[in-house]
Structures are given as structure tokens and as C-alpha cells.
Amino acid sequence: MTTDHLERTDNALPPDKPELVLIVQVSDTGAVKPGDLAALADALRETATGLLPGARTHTLLSSGPAPLVVDLPARGLILDGSRVELSHTEFEILAHLVGRPGTAVPRSTLRALGAGYVDAERGNRAVDVHVSRIRSKLGRFGNVVTTVRGSGYRFDPDARVHVVELLHRRSA
């Protein structure tokens, strides 16, 4: 995650409530201060809560473009402003890799996420087929999913890739 992003999450509500993710891109004019961004995030959350009472909100403010957004809470992928459809298994694999940046994840672990079936058409290479499809759908960012020869796959963070995660408030 890059430092030019500010995130706010409201997790005070039960997890079964609807969730609204707001992604706002702010032009980088140098006139915006971090405190201003925080105030904007709070105002957006207030407005969103008014529109969708009881919803949990997650606000991402960015001073520059985030060409690829992996939105874990919403189970979404946004590439250059357009939503990219992933199958359930593709998203599970991507989410697992993204949750462990820089760490090689064995194929056997990914197979347990739902890509472990064996059929005559694909043989026992189902994980590899799913990863190939993920890379294809990531377009020019396909290289953030790296093959670790003889082991599995790894997510390599990139400054242009933003991962939206649920932020949990800590109580003192």
C-alpha cells in the first residue's frame, strides 16, 4: 500500500450489514493537506451513511491514480476504472496471494481454496489454469503474480496497485 492514500473504515456495525466502498481520486495540486483529506473522508462517510443507513463504509482517497484496485471486502477488482469479473476461485486465489505479499504460497494451499478439482480436460493443473486466467485479467499488472518455480505463486506489491482491506479499530 502506498503512502499517498488515506483510508477510513467504519467497522462498528455487525458484519452482516451492507458495506459501501467509496473510492475518490483527488488531483495532486499540492493544495490538499492530510487533515483536509481526513475531513473529506469523514464527510463522505457521513453522506454515505445517510444514503444507506446501517451500512459499513470504507473510504479510499487517493492523490493520484490507482490503476489497479483489489477490493477485498467487496470482492472486486477494478482496472483503469472498470470492474473486472473474476470467478469465485480466481478471486479466492488472488485474495490469498494479496494477503501474503512477497510470500511464496504453495500450489497445495491454493488448491485447497477451491482450485483442487481434477478433471480430464485440465488434469491436475487447475491452480495453474486459474492463475493464468488471473494474470490475463490483470492485464499489464499480470506480473504482480509471480511463479515460484517448483513451489507455487507469490504476489509482488506494486506502487500502482492498491489493496483495500478492512481496517479494524483497536480499543485501548
Describe the overall structure.
With 172 residues, this protein is an alpha+beta fold. The protein folds into two domains: 5-65, no CATH class; 83-155, Winged helix-like DNA-binding domain superfamily/Winged helix DNA-binding domain (Arc Repressor Mutant, subunit A). Helix content is 30%, strand content 25%. The chain has helices at residues 34-51, 88-98, 107-115, 126-138; strands at residues 5-9, 19-25, 56-62, 68-71, 76-79, 82-83, 105-106, 145-148, 152-155, 161-164. A four-stranded mixed sheet has the order 6-5-4-10, covered by helices on one side. A three-stranded mixed sheet has the order 1-3-2, covered by helices on one side. β2, α1 (34-51) and β3 (56-62) form a beta-alpha-beta unit. The longest helix is centred in the N-terminal third of the chain and has 18 residues, at 34-51. It is elongated. It starts with a strand and ends in an 8-residue tail after the last strand.
> How many discrete domains?
2
General form: elongated
Unreliable stretches (pLDDT < 50, length at least 5) are 1-14, 168-172
Number of helices: 4
Oligomer: single chain
Radius of gyration: 18 Å
Distance between the termini: 25 Å
Fold-level CATH name of the largest domain? Arc Repressor Mutant, subunit A
Strand content: 25-35%
Q: Strand order of the main beta sheet, please?
A: 6-5-4-10
